[in-house]
C-alpha cells in the first residue's frame, strides 16, 4: 500500500445526472476504483461543474464514460481545457454524441489524449472500448419473460407510438434490468438501455434515433419508427449471446494495461 500523503492524483470525470441512470452507471471508478485507490488519490467530478484549478500538470484525468464528445459546446471547450492542463488524459469509452438539432463550433484535439478509447465501434484511428457499465452485476439478472415487447424511453424523448408496457431511463438500474429480464424484446431510444438489453441477450429495436451515438453501435439493433410492423422487426432482430463476456473482458484488459502503464510512469 502506498502512503496516502504521497499518492499522485487521478481525477475521474463524467456526468452525474441522477435522472439518467446510464450516466450514473458509466464511470470506471464505480467498478475499478478500489484498485486505482491502492496507488492513487482518486477524486470524482461532474464535467459540468469542474473546477480546473484542482487539476495539476502531473495529475491523471480519466474522462468517461458517456456520450461526452460533440454533444454540447461547453463540453467541447472544457475537454480541450483539460487536455491543455495535463498530458495524462485518458478517454475511457467516451462516445461521439452529436444531437441532430445542435450546432457545435469547437473541435476536440483528440491527438492530445494520452490514451483514447471510444465506445463507438469502427471509428478510424480511435480504439474501440465498450462502455464500462457492462461491469454492473445487475446485467446478470435472469427472469421468466412476462411480455413480448417492452419500451424503455429516454426521459427527454418519449415514445408514444404503441400502448405497451413502458418505463424510462430515469428508473433505477435495478428496475431497468428487471424490466429487461422480463421482456423478450426491448424497444428503446436510450443508448445505455439499448446496450444493456443487448448484453442481457434480448432482441432490441432502436426507435427513431436522435443522435450520432447510435451510428456505431457494435451490437446492431433493428431500426424502427412508429409505422414499423413490430412482429416483423422482432423476427429480424438478433440476440448477441457472448456480448456481455466480450465487453467485460475488454474493460478488464484495458484496466490492467492502463494501470500498469500509469504505475510505470509514476513509481
List the helices and strands and how they pair.
Blueprint: E1 9-14, H1 21-24, H2 29-37, E2 41-46, E3 60-63, E4 66-69, H3 73-85, E5 89-96, E6 115-118, E7 127-128, E8 147-153, E9 166-168, H4 173-181, E10 183-188, H5 191-199, E11 203-207, E12 222-224, H6 230-236, H7 243-266
Parallel strand pairs: 1-2, 1-3, 3-5, 4-5, 5-6, 6-7, 8-9, 8-10, 10-11, 11-12
Please summarize the sheet with the most strands: 7 strands, parallel
- Share of β-strand residues: 15-25%
N-C termini distance: 12 Å
Residue stretches low in confidence (pLDDT < 50, at least 5 long) are none
Question: What's the gist of this structure?
Answer:
By secondary structure, this protein is α/β, with parallel strands linked by helices.
Structure, explained:
With 267 residues, the chain is of the alpha/beta class. The protein is 28% helix and 22% strand. It contains seven helices and twelve strands. The protein has helices spanning 21-24, 29-37, 73-85, 173-181, 191-199, 230-236, 243-266, and strands at residues 9-14, 41-46, 60-63, 66-69, 89-96, 115-118, 127-128, 147-153, 166-168, 183-188, 203-207, 222-224. The longest helix has 24 residues, at 243-266. The model has no long low-confidence stretch (mean pLDDT 96).
Keywords:
alpha/beta; five-stranded parallel β-sheet
Amino acid at each position: 500500500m502506498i502512503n496516502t500523503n504521497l499518492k499522485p492524483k487521478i481525477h475521474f470525470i463524467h456526468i452525474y445526472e441522477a435522472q439518467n441512470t446510464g450516466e450514473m452507471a458509466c464511470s470506471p471508478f464505480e467498478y475499478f476504483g478500489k484498485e486505482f485507490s491502492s496507488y492513487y488519490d482518486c477524486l470524482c467530478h461532474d464535467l459540468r461543474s469542474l473546477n480546473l484549478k484542482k487539476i495539476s500538470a502531473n495529475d491523471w484525468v480519466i474522462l468517461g464514460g458517456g456520450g461526452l464528445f460533440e454533444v454540447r459546446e461547453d463540453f467541447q471547450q472544457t475537454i480541450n481545457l483539460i487536455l491543455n492542463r495535463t498530458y495524462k488524459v485518458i478517454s475511457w469509452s467516451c462516445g461521439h454524441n452529436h444531437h441532430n438539432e445542435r450546432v457545435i463550433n469547437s473541435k476536440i484535439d483528440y491527438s492530445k489524449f494520452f490514451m483514447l478509447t471510444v465506445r463507438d465501434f469502427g471509428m478510424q484511428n480511435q480504439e474501440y472500448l465498450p462502455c464500462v457499465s457492462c461491469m454492473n452485476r445487475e446485467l446478470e439478472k435472469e427472469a421468466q419473460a412476462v411480455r413480448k415487447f417492452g419500451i424503455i424511453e429516454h426521459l427527454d424523448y418519449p415514445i408514444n407510438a404503441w400502448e405497451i408496457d413502458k418505463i424510462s431511463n430515469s428508473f433505477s438500474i435495478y428496475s431497468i434490468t428487471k424490466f429487461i429480464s422480463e421482456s423478450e424484446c426491448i424497444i428503446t431510444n436510450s443508448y445505455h438501455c439499448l446496450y444493456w438489453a443487448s448484453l442481457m441477450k434480448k432482441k432490441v429495436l432502436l426507435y427513431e434515433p436522435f443522435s450520432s451515438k447510435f451510428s456505431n453501435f457494435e451490437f446492431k439493433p433493428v431500426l424502427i419508427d412508429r409505422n414499423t410492423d413490430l412482429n416483423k422487426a422482432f423476427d429480424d432482430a438478433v440476440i448477441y449471446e457472448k456480448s456481455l463476456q466480450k465487453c467485460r473482458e475488454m474493460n478488464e484488459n484495458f484496466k490492467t494495461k492502463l494501470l500498469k502503464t500509469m504505475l510505470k510512469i509514476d513509481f
